[in-house]
């Protein structure tokens, strides 16, 4: 059947008219989408969407609810940024966290009135950032948790911020937070009457309590968390109501001379102070976490009797969660924690360098000879087997010995028979050389890739004389307060020599191992209360008071009571190890 076109009917033309309509419709749709997008982004309704794609716009308002009773306000940035924690309204709800939201409620009291703020927050990756503050505000103020601004107790917060085109400066990665934390010399929680003062580019929160002992001024760092590498060794001693990590009755390996409570010391508040760095918090020692962190590894304490003091403190802490197996011998103490295959080791070495007693040149037999340019050979045999080494030395340089360098007698301590000869090296210089020698040997020995922690010179507190000339630390019940410290010249010089030797060894390191200085000297000069004093034995007839002539009884003002300040050394060791194994740099 053939189809024909009827006369007078229009001819079928399928292209010109339908194609033009398609073009018109596509153009209209494109115009509509462009217009709708402009309306969505420009109007307040689209503020949240705009925040997703373009961060926070310059015309945006932010709601910063710190809690139901605390309001945070950001003023015009021409002068400064203030963070006010003020109890303005009665609490209606107990909030555990607070959120910075990019949504704009109608009753928002926080405005951005200028894009040239001195302190701004860039919410570049998300529409909300949780803020936490561990401060306690009395009365109606509530606690706020999970903070990216971790304000520890007795802290002063400085917000040193950048100038950008957006409102705030909290980066979601927390790597570029420009927050400076400086601790005041006071302790505990925020007093409701404490002033919240504001200076340009900073917000300070001061505390009214004063039960602390400050040490040196803080060095400001960009972040307040331990992992950021804050200075662990500048801070203050704060009273700790939690008390010690163990008791003298819960540790079976405690040397009796350091068992101060067991030896009858009448006071025990010296156990209740903990070290608080200005810029971060030194975590309380968690023995389970430590053993897990050290799983399959060996920690060795090497050195003198102060090294033994620290090793026993470590064992006392770990003993609270697991009883180790004693696998030691006469040459090496070894305690094995089976649950994590962790070994704690101690090796005795008075000077850390080669020691002989045979006659040498004009030095007779029977007198200790220190070969200052040679490390202790017995120690070096074991070093590659250790993962972490903690070193202690210095105090034996006060004992009689002969100093040999380059196969020549160059000095001596309490021994120098020929006064016509000039002594080239005294005990202080000999100590510095010994530190350099041993640390250089560790840093260059093949097959050792471990972590070496050099605990700095431990201060003694003999007053009125030395350890063998009537020095005393009797009656010291609490740490020294700021301004009370009398500088110990000998301690400072020994510390200086040790640091110099340490730095020289670092420069010569070749084996890829790590050297870290645990610089406790200055902080522990304030702890004259932490020594056994006359309470060195359980003898009920021991003399603990001065005689009629004022002479003090024999006492120990060098070693540390356990529990006591020495436990802080191991909290520092834990933190240094954690930083090395989990990331972050040690100061």
TrEMBL record:
<dbReference type="InterPro" id="IPR029962">
    <property type="entry name" value="TBL"/>
</dbReference>
<feature type="compositionally biased region" description="Polar residues">
    <location>
        <begin position="113"/>
        <end position="128"/>
    </location>
</feature>
<feature type="compositionally biased region" description="Polar residues">
    <location>
        <begin position="73"/>
        <end position="83"/>
    </location>
</feature>
<dbReference type="GO" id="GO:0016020">
    <property type="term" value="C:membrane"/>
</dbReference>
<dbReference type="GO" id="GO:0016413">
    <property type="term" value="F:O-acetyltransferase activity"/>
</dbReference>
<dbReference type="InterPro" id="IPR025846">
    <property type="entry name" value="TBL_N"/>
</dbReference>
<feature type="region of interest" description="Disordered">
    <location>
        <begin position="186"/>
        <end position="223"/>
    </location>
</feature>
<dbReference type="GO" id="GO:0005794">
    <property type="term" value="C:Golgi apparatus"/>
</dbReference>
<keyword id="KW-1133">Transmembrane helix</keyword>
<feature type="domain" description="Trichome birefringence-like C-terminal">
    <location>
        <begin position="282"/>
        <end position="575"/>
    </location>
</feature>
<feature type="region of interest" description="Disordered">
    <location>
        <begin position="73"/>
        <end position="128"/>
    </location>
</feature>
<keyword id="KW-0735">Signal-anchor</keyword>
<dbReference type="InterPro" id="IPR026057">
    <property type="entry name" value="TBL_C"/>
</dbReference>
<protein>
    <submittedName>
        <fullName>Protein trichome birefringence-like 18 isoform A</fullName>
    </submittedName>
</protein>
<comment type="similarity">
    <text>Belongs to the PC-esterase family. TBL subfamily.</text>
</comment>
<dbReference type="Pfam" id="PF14416">
    <property type="entry name" value="PMR5N"/>
</dbReference>
<feature type="transmembrane region" description="Helical">
    <location>
        <begin position="21"/>
        <end position="41"/>
    </location>
</feature>
<feature type="region of interest" description="Disordered">
    <location>
        <begin position="527"/>
        <end position="556"/>
    </location>
</feature>
<feature type="domain" description="Trichome birefringence-like N-terminal">
    <location>
        <begin position="229"/>
        <end position="281"/>
    </location>
</feature>
<dbReference type="Pfam" id="PF13839">
    <property type="entry name" value="PC-Esterase"/>
</dbReference>
<feature type="compositionally biased region" description="Polar residues">
    <location>
        <begin position="94"/>
        <end position="105"/>
    </location>
</feature>
<feature type="region of interest" description="Disordered">
    <location>
        <begin position="140"/>
        <end position="159"/>
    </location>
</feature>
<keyword id="KW-0812">Transmembrane</keyword>
<keyword id="KW-0472">Membrane</keyword>
């Amino acid at each position: 059947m053939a189809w024909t076109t009827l006369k007078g009917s229009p001819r079928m033309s399928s292209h010109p008219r339908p194609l033009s309509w398609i073009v018109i419709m596509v153009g209209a749709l494109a115009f509509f989408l462009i217009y709708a997008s402009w309306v969505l982004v420009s109007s307040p309704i689209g503020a949240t969407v705009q925040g997703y794609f373009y961060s926070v716009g310059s015309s945006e308002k932010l709601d910063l609810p710190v809690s139901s009773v605390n309001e945070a306000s950001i003023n015009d940035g021409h002068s400064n940024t203030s963070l006010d924690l003020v109890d303005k309204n009665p609490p209606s709800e107990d909030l555990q966290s607070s959120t910075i939201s990019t949504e704009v409620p109608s009753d928002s009291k926080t405005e951005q009135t200028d894009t040239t703020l001195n302190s701004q927050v860039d919410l570049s990756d998300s529409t909300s950032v949780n803020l936490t503050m561990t401060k306690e505000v009395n009365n109606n103020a509530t606690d706020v948790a999970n903070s990216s601004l971790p304000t520890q107790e007795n802290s002063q917060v400085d917000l040193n911020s950048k100038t950008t085109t957006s409102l705030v400066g909290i980066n979601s990665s927390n790597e570029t937070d420009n927050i400076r934390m400086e601790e005041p010399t006071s302790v505990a929680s925020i007093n409701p009457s404490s002033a919240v003062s504001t200076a340009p580019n900073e917000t300070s929160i001061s505390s009214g309590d004063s039960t602390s002992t400050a040490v040196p001024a803080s060095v400001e760092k960009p972040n307040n968390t331990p992992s950021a590498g804050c200075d662990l060794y500048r801070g203050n001693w704060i009273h700790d109501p939690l008390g010690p990590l163990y008791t003298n009755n819960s540790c079976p390996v405690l040397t009796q001379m350091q068992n101060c409570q067991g030896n009858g010391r009448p006071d025990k508040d010296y156990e209740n102070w903990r070290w608080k760095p200005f810029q971060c918090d030194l975590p309380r020692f968690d023995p389970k976490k430590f053993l897990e962190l050290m799983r399959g590894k060996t920690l060795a304490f090497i050195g003198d009797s102060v090294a033994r003091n620290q090793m026993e403190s470590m064992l006392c802490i770990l003993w609270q969660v697991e009883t180790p197996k004693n696998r030691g011998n006469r040459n090496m103490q070894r305690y094995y924690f089976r649950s994590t295959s962790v070994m704690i080791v101690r090796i005795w070495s008075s000077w850390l360098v080669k020691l002989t007693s045979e006659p040498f040149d004009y030095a007779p037999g029977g007198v200790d000879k220190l070969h200052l340019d040679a490390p202790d050979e017995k120690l070096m045999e074991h070093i590659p087997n250790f993962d972490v080494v903690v070193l202690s030395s210095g105090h034996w340089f006060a004992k009689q010995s002969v100093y040999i360098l380059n196969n020549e007698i160059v000095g001596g301590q309490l021994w120098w028979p020929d006064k016509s000869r000039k002594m080239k090296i005294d005990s202080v210089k000999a100590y510095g050389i010994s530190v350099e020698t041993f640390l250089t040997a560790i840093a260059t020995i093949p097959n050792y890739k471990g972590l070496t922690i050099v605990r700095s010179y431990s201060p003694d507190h003999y007053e009125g004389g030395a350890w063998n000339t009537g020095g005393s630390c009797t009656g010291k019940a609490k740490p020294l307060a700021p301004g009370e410290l009398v500088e110990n010249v000998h301690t400072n010089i020994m510390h200086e020599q040790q640091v110099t030797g340490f730095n020289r060894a670092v420069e010569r390191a070749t084996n890829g191992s790590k050297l870290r200085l645990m610089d406790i000297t200055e902080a522990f000069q304030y702890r004259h209360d932490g020594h056994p004093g006359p309470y060195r034995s359980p003898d009920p007839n021991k003399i603990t008071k001065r005689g009629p002539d004022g002479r003090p009884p024999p006492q120990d003002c060098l070693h540390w009571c356990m529990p006591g300040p020495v436990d802080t050394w191991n909290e520092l060791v834990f933190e240094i190890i954690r930083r090395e194994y989990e990331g972050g740099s040690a100061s």
